[in-house]
Each structure stands twice: as C-alpha cells, then as structure tokens.
Design goal:
heterodimer, A: alpha+beta, Alpha-Beta Plaits, two-stranded antiparallel ribbon, two-stranded antiparallel sheet, 2 helices, B: alpha/beta, Rossmann fold, seven-stranded mixed β-sheet, 8 strands, binds thiamine diphosphate, binds iron/sulfur cluster, binds magnesium ion
Chain lengths: 74, 279
C-alpha cells in the first residue's frame, strides 16, 4: 500500500490536493493545526494509487508520497 | 536533504520503497510565507525540482524580485541575490557575464517584470542574455495590497481600479511572451496556466527548455506562469484556478511562442550521424 504524508503542521488547508486527487482519497481535517488552519489528511488510503498529483499541486511542498517499488520487467 | 525516510515510519526495509514525491533537496526546510493556495509555492517547488534534476545546486544563482516573492532566497539552498524592484534581469546579466559557468535565473512577478522593470526585461531579451526568467503573472500587485498592474485584465477590479480596469484610461494588458517573441535574442518563450497537475507537468517541460536555452548557450529563456493571487482576487484557491481557465487564458493564450532549443532526445542521435558523415 502506498504511504502518503503531509506536513500537517505547515498545511494551510488550501484544498488544492483534495480537489485534484483523482481518487478522492483526501479530505480536510476538522482539527486546527498550530498555525490556525484545518490541514488536509488522508481518509481513504486504500484508494490511493501513489500517483502524487496531490503533491504536484501542493504550494507548501509538504506532501510526501512513497510506494512499494514496482517489480522490474525482465 | 529531505529524504522520505526521515518523514515516514514503515516497518518494511527501505529498499522495497521508492519516493515518488518529496520536497526538492534544493529547497530549504523553512515554511513558505505565501497565502494559502498561492501558486508562488508551486513555482518555488518547480524551481527546486529543476535545480535538483539538472544537478545545478552548486552553481546556481537565483535573482529574487520585489513583490510577494521578495524572500524567495530563504527557501532555496543555492546562492541568491535580492535585486531592487524590476532590476533582476540587470543583476542576472552581471552575474552571468562575470561567471558564465553559473546557472542564473530571475524569479519575477508581473509588477516587477512588466511594470517597473519593463526596460530591463526587454533589453536583457534583446541582448540575448544567457539567463532564464521565471515570470509569475498573477495580474496584480499582490504584496502591496492588490493594486492594478499593466497585466491586469480589462474590467478587473483592484484597489486602484475599483470600477474595473478601463482600457481607455489605463491601456490594455501587456502580453510579455508575445512582445518578447519578436526579439532574435530570445531562444525560448512559453506561457502555461498553473491550474492542474497536467499543466504543472507542462510547466516542467517548458522550464527544462528555458534552462537548456541558457546552459547550451542559445539565448534568453522565459516561462510565464499564469498564476493565482487568491487573496487579492477575493477568490478561493480553487475558484482562482477556475478563473484562469475560464477568463485569463482568453487574454493570455497559453503556448510556446519561441523555441530555438533542440528537442532533448532526438538531437544527439542526428548530430552524431551528421558529424560522422560530413568528413
Ligand atoms: C522602487 C520601488 N517601487 C515600488 C515598490 C513597492 N512595491 C513593492 S512590491 C510591488 C509590486 C509587486 O507586484 P508583483 O511584481 O506583481 O508581485 P506579486 O506580489 O504580485 O507576486 C511594488 C509596487 C518598491 N518596493 N520599490
Ligand atoms: S498576496 Fe497574492 S501573490 Fe502574494 S502571497 Fe498572497 S496570494 Fe500569493
Ligand atoms: Mg503580481
């Protein structure tokens, strides 16, 4: 399963990742962070394909996407 | 270094995982000061990605503007110089001519590049300076409180055009790529709206060419990003991107205006054959 993380202490809750995730796996949290915003979070990790389109749109350079290495075709 | 391992806890050995997105190593770890959803942050990340990709960290000099990106140098690990308002192309010219081995880029807003700095911009392009320009066109003076810029759209409401920009009084928007494309010194000029992951990827393609225009000593390169200023436009970040796709691109059509940079893959093969057969 892919691993997704956001620097939630830096997220300004702009919603761009939520909007552009083609699988609708992200949402805005209902808990404020220390800088006063509602950060994005993963709510349906099972659907995440690690396409990293969310990270492409993140203005805080705050999203990290890791996936299991694909087996090399021989 | 912003490695994935520092930020993720997995109980599986590292060599089974690969990182498909992370903060570029050319970026510092400082939190960006931009408003929520502002595309300045996306463009900063793209600049960092490019410096990483081309392996230029040791020889890059970034020239920062006056505008919201005035602190851009805080967010990068390479050397930077803060130019006075609009003068970044002149400073970049000096750095590049003094030490041509450097990769020198300017990062400029529309108020910086197309208002107070128009002369520096046009003449650096006319001289064909080997510099790369990243032009953040959000059609407004973001930093100073949302005043009208020469790039503001006809009818656009700003703090200095509260009834909407009237072209009869203040002229029509300056289309920088079109204007510069008449100059033979320009090797690459393209405009891209930063409104979707697809367009972010297109921006990467344009940035590679604008960088190669300099590194391969072809000429001046510019990429114009149609950018959002959600706060001064009074729109949410997503609505601001939709506004670009619906309205801004009608005034500023996206596309490539000048491309004298050979395609990366095709060129070396043909070049080898030519060299071999010509003797
Ligand atoms: C010589 C000089 N004149 C005017 C200013 C005031 N000033 C600061 S930022 C700015 C406009 C910035 O607009 P833009 O380049 O579009 O950047 P943005 O904030 O929109 O990214 C102006 C006029 C200044 N700092 N220096
Ligand atoms: S004022 Fe506009 S350009 Fe400046 S940081 Fe805020 S949204 Fe971005
Ligand atoms: Mg501006």
């Amino acid at each position: 399963m892919p691993v997704w993380s956001v620097r939630s202490e830096r997220c300004k809750g702009c919603r761009l990742c939520v909007e552009f995730c083609p699988r609708h796996c992200l949402e805005i949290s209902n808990e404020l962070n220390a800088i006063g915003y509602y950060p994005a979070r993963m709510h349906d990790a099972g659907k995440c394909t690690s396409c990293a389109l969310c990270a492409d749109m993140c203005p805080e350079a705050g999203i990290i996407v890791v996936r299991r290495k694909r087996k090399k075709k021989t | 270094m912003h490695s994935c391992a520092d930020n993720l806890v997995t109980d599986t050995p590292d060599d089974e995982f690969e990182c498909v997105a992370h903060r570029p190593n050319s970026m510092s770890d400082k939190p960006l000061h931009y408003c929520p959803g502002c595309t300045h942050g996306i463009i900063h990340r793209l600049v960092g990605e490019m410096v990483d990709e081309f392996g230029l960290l040791d020889r890059t000099v970034g020239i920062c503007p006056v505008g919201c990106a005035v602190f851009a140098y805080e967010y990068f690990e390479f050397d930077s110089i803060e130019a006075s308002h609009g003068r970044a192309p002149a400073v970049a010219t000096a750095v590049k001519r003094a030490d041509p081995r450097r990769f020198v880029f300017t990062y400029q807003g529309d108020g910086d590049l197309a208002a107070i700095g128009t002369a520096e911009t046009v003449h650096a392009a006319a001289r064909g300076e080997r510099i790369t320009v990243f032009f953040v066109n959000n059609g407004i003076y973001g930093m100073t409180g949302g005043q009208m810029a020469p790039t503001s759209l006809p009818g656009q409401k700003t703090t200095t055009s509260p009834g909407g920009r009237d072209p009869a009084l203040t002229g029509h928007p300056i289309a920088v790529c079109e204007m510069l494309s008449t100059l033979p010194g320009v090797a690459f000029a393209a405009r891209v709206p930063l409104t979707s992951p697809k367009n972010v990827n297109l921006a990467r393609r344009y940035m590679r060419k604008a960088i190669r225009a300099q590194l391969e000593n072809i000429g001046y390169g510019i990429v114009e990003f149609l950018s959002t200023c959600p706060v001064q436009w009074g729109l949410t970040p997503i609505a601001a991107m939709k506004h670009i796709d619906a309205d801004v691109i009608k005034v500023y059509p996206p596309g490539v205006f000048v491309d004298r940079v050979p395609d990366a893959r095709a060129a070396p093969v043909g070049a080898e054959t030519d060299a071999g057969s010509s003797t």
